[in-house]
Amino acid sequence: MFRRMISPNWKTLAVCCGAWAACASMAQPVQMTPQAAPARQQAAELLAPGQQALTAWRWRLQAVRGKDRAWFTRAAAALSEPVVLRFDEAAVSVAAPCNQLRGRYLLSGERMLIEPLMGTKKGCADARLMALEDRLEQILPTVKDWRLQTARQQSGQPAATLRLRFINGSEWLLQGEPAGAPGSL
């Protein structure tokens, strides 16, 4: 009797699994086409105004104040290009001297949370650059808040400055460059 009660359910499960497998095998890969641009625009419109402003720029690390100033000053002498941060809808990417770092972030008003970063692990020829990358990977997840200021330059071009403050009291100043500019991440 117990066997008869289970058998119909087992057959139903087998039929459902077979139907699901057949549907899954017919799925076509999604391709990015020019028609996808409106979808990206719609996604951008769903972002909070502060997040829209944050994602509209790529950010060059210009100065570090507070406890982190010493390590940044030592490493900055070895930099051939500035450290660049780029925020998209859900993640921050860091173009460091030798590697790329990436991690998810969340905003709540002026509060920012960056989850631990992951990235490539190529070695740097200069130990100062490797130390800089290690420090970037350690300190970015300790950000506590952010402030973005925008203005117009005398030329009429937009300008933006991003200030990140960390739990150890340090502050980073980053200069914005429009995200669509040549050389953007």
TrEMBL record:
Where would I find the DUF306 domain in this sequence? 52-151
> Which Pfam families does this UniProt record tie to the protein?
META
**Transmembrane residues, as ranges?**
none
Swiss-Prot/TrEMBL keywords: Signal
Signal sequence span is: 1-27
Q: Which InterPro entries match?
A: DUF306_Meta_HslJ, HslJ-like_sf, Hsp_HslJ-like
Q: What is the protein name for this chain?
A: META domain-containing protein
